[in-house]
Design goal:
alpha+beta; Ubiquitin-like (UB roll); 5-stranded mixed sheet; 12 strands; flat
């Protein structure tokens, strides 16, 4: 499965959606968060929450040498970054609006403007303005387990493309659908488990391939040794 996870990063002055590799350490994460939040690395206190409005933390990232995966960080969770010594940084100053004169616009005046998000949604029929019969298709469920032995459909008669399932899920190289990542027993694949710079699983070069689920047959397929030598002239 992909090691990249999408989370929300929240600090006194910032809120953003970010993607991080679960293999990086807490120390490496802090260096990235300093650029995002403005909070110096020594001042950062990081906690994981299931939702931004939750008050009970799921975990606290207290060990710099541990990877993010160790703390069980999942997609769409929230990382809250607290500045333990705000006197040495600028956190909080950007959110102090007590001295700023407020600009207020009535609902009626806002609805009349053509340069707003509301106007954009109305023009393009997005969100609550979309036709009632339109919906986003659900991601199909695939009953294929990681580690299963499999045989991939081949157009060459008598040629068995056998291997082990190493990945099942959506990918960045295709906009829709589910893909199955297979580690072949022999070097008959197209990659090493990564495509276009993103890694989905690990295997030797030319042993990895991604195929659609309907091309994969799961079963007790033993390893077959393929003879690549030409025995006839």
């Amino acid at each position: 499965m992909s090691s990249m996870t999408t989370i929300f990063v929240v600090s006194p002055d910032t809120r953003s959606e970010r993607r991080f590799d679960l293999h990086i350490t807490v120390e490496q994460l802090k260096a990235k968060l300093e650029l995002i939040t403005g909070i110096p690395v020594p001042n950062q206190q990081i906690s994981i929450f299931d939702g931004e409005n939750d008050t009970q933390a799921v975990a606290h990232l207290t060990e710099d040498a541990r990877s993010l995966g160790f703390y069980g960080l999942r997609n769409m969770q929230t990382l809250k970054v607290v500045d333990t010594n705000p006197s040495t940084s600028f956190t909080g100053q950007l959110t102090d609006v007590s001295q700023v004169e407020k600009f207020e616009l009535s609902d009626e005046a806002y609805a009349q403007r053509q340069d707003t998000v509301l106007a954009y949604k109305q023009r393009h029929k997005v969100g609550r303005f979309a036709p009632a019969n339109e919906h986003v298709p659900a991601t199909p469920q695939v009953d294929i387990s990681l580690g299963s032995r499999c045989e991939v459909e081949s157009s060459e008669e008598g040629f068995h493309k056998r291997g082990t399932v190493r990945f099942v899920g959506p990918t960045s190289f295709a906009k829709t659908g589910i893909w199955v990542g297979v580690e072949y027993d022999e070097p008959i694949g197209k990659n090493d488990g990564s495509v276009q710079g993103e890694r989905y699983f690990n295997c030797s070069p030319s042993h990895g391939a991604f195929v659609r689920p309907d091309k994969v047959k799961i079963g007790d397929f033993p390893v077959e040794e393929i003879n690549f030598d030409d025995e006839e002239m």
